[in-house]
Structures are given as C-alpha cells and as structure tokens.
Task: structure prediction
Amino acid sequence: MKITKIRPLVCDAYRSNWVFVKVETDKGIYGVGEATLEYHELSVAKAIEEIGVNLVGKDPHAIEAFWHYTYRNSYWQGGAVIISAMAAIEMALWDIKGKDLGVPVYQLIGGKIRDKIPCYANAWFASAKTPEEFAAKAKEALKLGFVGLKWDPFGTAWQSIEQKDFNSAIDCVAAVKEAVKDKTLLLIEGHGRLNVPSAIRVGKELEKYDVHWFEEPIPPNDFEGLAEVRKNVGVAIAAGERIYNKFRFKTFLNMGCADYIQPDVTHVGLFELRKIAALAETYHLPVCPHNPSGPVANAATLQLAACCPNIYLLETMATDIPVRAKIAKETLRLENGYMVIPDIPGLGVDLDEEEIKKHPYKPHSIRHYTGKLTDIRPADEIAYYSVDRGKVNKDNK
Result:
C-alpha cells in the first residue's frame, strides 16, 4: 500500500477554524487527522501540503520513519506550525493502519486498560459575564455529570492584575463554588496571562476554595517561573498544552513545573503523546490531555486514554457548533461524566468533505485578553454526544 495524496481541509468553527488532513492510499483506505492551531490555521494547512509532498509513494504503515525523517528534514526542528502539521498527518497514518488491520488504534499502541475516561467540561460557561451568571451555568453543567468544570475568570488581565479584576475573579470562583458545593472539581484556567508575583497572589487566594488545579498561570515558555509559582502556592499546577515534543517535556518534568501534565495530540502527535505520557509516568505524574478542538482530535485523544495508564482526566467541550454533527461521523456517549471509548477500527471518526466545503475558512481574532473570552459558542450550540447517567448509576448500586 502506498500514499497517493495528502490534503488539508479547513472548516470554520465559530471561534477558530478546524484544520483537518486526509491521507489517501492506492488501496482505497484513507485516514483523517487534525492540526487545529488556533489563529494560525492557514499556516499549518500550508505546512501539511509542504510535508505531504515528500510522502506520496511512501508506505503509510511506516509511521515512526515518517516522524523521524520529517522532524530531521524540517531543519527548523520543532515549533507549533511544523509539529502540528506532522501531528495531523501522523494521526491519519494511525487511522489508516487501524482500518487496514481492522482494529482500533489503541490496540496498536498498547491495548485497552479502560473502557471509558472521566471528563471535565470546558465551554460550559458560554456567554456568562457575571459571577451570578457563571454560578447558574455551573448548576446546569452539573446535570451532565462532568467530574470537573474549567474556566478562566480573569477578564482582560495581562501580567499584573488590577485589584478590581482580582476581586471580580475571586468573586466568580466563590460563586461557582457555592453553586456546585463539592459535587464537582473546580479547575481554574490562566491562559498563561500572569507574571510570577501575580500568579502566586492568585494561587494563594484560590487555596481557600479547594481548587483542584490552577492551569497555565504564567506564559508557557518560562519553566523556571512556573516552577517558582508551583513551589509557593498550595494549589496544584497544570500546564503543558503549548509544549510540542518530548525533548521539551523532559526539561519541563525535570524542573518540577507542574503536578498535572497537559500535552495536546494536535500539537505533539499521537505516538509522541504516548511517549510523553510514559515519560510522565516515570515521575508518577498524571496526564490530562488538552482537548478543546475538533472531532478528530477528540477521537485520537480517546484512543490514547484507552491505553495510557496515567491519563487521569480528559478535557471535553460541553457543547459545540451545530455543524459538527454534519461534518463528523462520530459515536460518543457520556456516562455519568465518563466518555466511552469507541471500538471502531482506526480512530473511530470520519469526515464529510462536501459539508466541510460549505464552511470555508474565516479569520478569527484571539479573545483571551479582550473581555470576550466567554463568547466561545454560538446561541445554537449543541451537545455532540449522548448522555446516559442512569446506566452508570444502576451499575454502581
């Protein structure tokens, strides 16, 4: 079997654009991958084309060879654009291999150790602005059974945080805590926005609310600063979504930067994330994959969750745009806060190219520091999974 064509597919997704790839073969089997690199979607799509030129005629089963030689021959090794493009193609190659052999990808990278993975929710807060609105949204999210709720309460703060914004953020955390009591974990997102003293100040205040973790409190490239924050606060630190390979993760782990490790399959690759999880396992650290993107990334992350023993929690978007149900063929079920892992050959997801064409690329600006961060979903947002709480409750009796 030989690769005959590699094509990027870009689809508007309201807050950004999903970037997919389709790898075709002369056997008629194709694979899909995802490289959604927020606000640089056209760059990564072009990188997929450039890398793909060298793969036509090659064996799609030679995945490790593809990764090694593409990384070596990129010359400018690493970086979000190149590695994300490689990750999408590699994902598609695993999809092809699984389909060709008639097994889910998890069977090829270690075999299943679990049937489902606990999930925390992102985007549950869509359109909320005040602490009261966040609290009301949190009560609604509880009905879906998610084991945790994550959000960024810090408004427009960058580096330092003004007293007014500090008070507003803590009031929001307090309101959500009061709304959910101890029924779910509270996960506070920082988006790499604060400097070290501001992060320490916020972290110390979060201790009062039994927050499960404080995520990316300072800019992601400052490993020394992150270790300093971790040393000085009593809240666990989560980070790692903007680290692109195992070499950087080695340094990150050696320096004691975080308690929860968050690689993203769209920015490191499927097997690379498997290796990073194994590296974290040697430190006895849990892995909680960053997973806020599209359907193919979610499918690939579920395959990893099936076979990596130290994957602890999976990020899951509470809802998505309506077009997801049209462009993606996926079978997902949430059971009492756990996502069931599919047993379909390959990654377990497929794409409708004709539907994707109806939603071409649109430029979107970053919202994180403008006060519009909660404008993450349209008014017609939908759930893309079924919810089954009764079955699990019955099983647990």
About this structure: The first strand starts at residue 3 and ends at 12. Confidence is low (pLDDT under 50) at residues 392-397.
